[in-house]
Design goal:
Layout lengths: L4 H11 L4 E5 L2 E4 H17 L7 E5 L4 H12 L3 E5 L5 H10 L9 E7 L7 E6 H15 L5 E5 L6 H13 L2 E4 L6 H7 L6 E5 L2 H16 L5 E6 L6 H10 L4 E8 L3 E7 L9 E5 L3 E5 L4 E6 L5 E2 L3 H7 E2 L2 E10 L5 E6 L4 E3 L2 E3 L1 H9 L4 E11 L3 E10 L7 H9 L10 E4 L13 H9 L1
């Protein structure tokens, strides 16, 4: 294995110079062209005095310019710190000032900023070793190869999409870059590319949108889509079943990963058990266990090196070489990880602990419910109780008694919400997760 991801791009530029490396809104760039652009940008960075170990903050763009900047920063020995497009210039300047005197070790490649469930911005330091281990995990478990043409539709400052560049570059495949999922026509047109092994990563909300508005178009790609990976948030049973029916020959992966842990487990539900909670066995470079508190703990070369400028939080999360997450889980008899929700999201109702994810999973399987979120709410009559906020496929509210009665057939009585609210649509975070903080604040106000 070479020392850096960029070494593989340089190798492909030498051995297969004419191979298409990137398709950017109709423009193609070969490996030779891409590497030449990276070397030119690295020279400009050196001329501007970019020093080894310093953080280079820059806005993420969904085009080849981002890829060039990202690799060039690594090439000069600096640390890439990509920020979302929603980060203001003032915030960017503040980060530059805050970390201007910080010099990180030569093995640190990236600092990725995430808020997580506990709030507050955290800079996760990812080593070059971690990037290579993540890439190797995905190659080994999901079959990335030189023929892979991977469509990237998610933000490249998040590990869900960023991590897919690494195995593609290691194997010498092709990346197709899109500006998110707002334009479904652009998404489907990307699959017109003459590749035999097309693949993509989609969060569950994106999969639901594709199936709702373009299932027939997706079905016509059944023989061309090699695999799809999902993650970042739980997928519903209904969505999982529908995707399997639409793409019966494709590998369909549900993956456990985070910025801190790297890529840990994956499960092909297209050719295995169809359980939204099942995230598969640990990958090649990953080890996991469940703590006595029921939390998922991970270990391996793919995990973070710590939080930049926050040694206390690093020591709290990294214990004896393990990252102890906020995620709750179990390991089944087959050695597969079963996700049980976030520890901070468990709701205490009358001494009973309720996973909102379990309630939401049951509710999403009720005909007519499009999506939902379960929260704790205070009622003058009922005291602290569960509330289900939901949207429907028709836009019309459903009878509360019908929802409650259906849920009572699937859940213990204390898990059935007493309060219900119909909304036109739910709020999501930028990377496709239900915005639980928003709803927690809403019910408390």
């Amino acid at each position: 294995m070479l020392c850096k991801i960029e070494d593989y791009v340089a190798l492909h530029a030498k051995e297969t110079p004419g191979k298409v490396a990137v398709v950017d809104h109709g423009s193609t760039y070969t490996y030779a062209e891409l590497w030449r652009m990276v070397e030119d940008e690295a020279h400009r960075l050196q001329c501007r005095g970019t020093e080894e170990g310093t953080c280079v903050f820059f806005h993420t763009t969904q085009n080849v310019s981002f890829l060039v900047s990202y690799m060039a920063i690594h090439l000069v020995g600096a640390v890439a710190a990509p920020l979302g497009s929603d980060v203001s210039e003032e915030e960017l300047e503040g980060l530059c000032h805050r970390y201007s005197s910080v010099r990180l070790s030569g093995d640190i490649a990236d600092v990725l900023f995430t808020t997580g469930t506990t709030g507050g911005q955290k800079g996760v330091m990812c080593s070059r070793r971690a990037l290579l281990a993540d890439a190797d995990n995905l190659i080994d478990a999901q079959g990335f190869c030189a023929d892979t043409v991977f469509v990237i539709a998610g933000p490249l400052n998040h590990i869900g999409s960023l991590s897919k560049m690494w195995p593609v570059w290691m194997e010498g495949g092709t990346l197709i870059l899109l500006d998110g999922m707002r334009d479904l026509d652009a998404f489907f047109h990307a699959f017109d590319y003459p590749g035999s092994k097309m693949a993509t990563f989609l969060v569950p909300t994106a999969i639901e949108m594709v199936l709702r508005f373009g299932r027939d178009r997706m079905a016509r790609l059944a023989d061309r889509i090699d695999f799809i990976e999902t993650g970042a948030a739980p997928i519903s049973q209904m969505c999982m079943e529908e995707l399997c029916q639409t793409l019966p020959h494709s590998r369909l992966y549900n993956t456990y990963a985070s910025t801190e842990t790297g890529i840990v487990c994956t499960h092909d539900f297209g050719h295995g058990i169809r359980d939204p909670h099942c995230l598969g066995r640990p990958m090649k470079h990953a080890t996991l266990r469940i703590t006595t508190e029921g939390r998922i703990a991970c270990k391996g070369d793919m995990m973070m090196s710590g939080y930049i400028g926050n040694d206390m939080l690093t020591r709290e999360r990294m214990r004896d070489g393990w990252i102890v997450t906020e995620d709750m889980g179990e390991i089944d008899a087959e050695g597969r990880l079963l996700f049980k929700g976030r520890s901070g999201e468990i709701i205490n109702i009358g001494g009973y602990k309720v996973s909102p994810m379990e309630v939401e999973q049951a509710a999403r399987n009720i005909e007519g419910i499009e999506d939902c979120v379960c929260v704790a709410a205070e009622s003058p009559l009922l005291g602290r109780t569960l509330k289900l906020i939901y949207s429907t496929t028709t836009g019309e509210a459903l009878p509360k008694t019908m929802i409650a009665r259906t849920l009572a057939q699937k859940l213990e009585r204390y898990k059935v919400p007493m309060l219900y609210e119909h909304v036109a649509q739910l709020h999501y975070t930028f990377n496709g997760k239900i915005d639980r903080k928003y709803y927690h604040a809403l019910v408390q106000s």
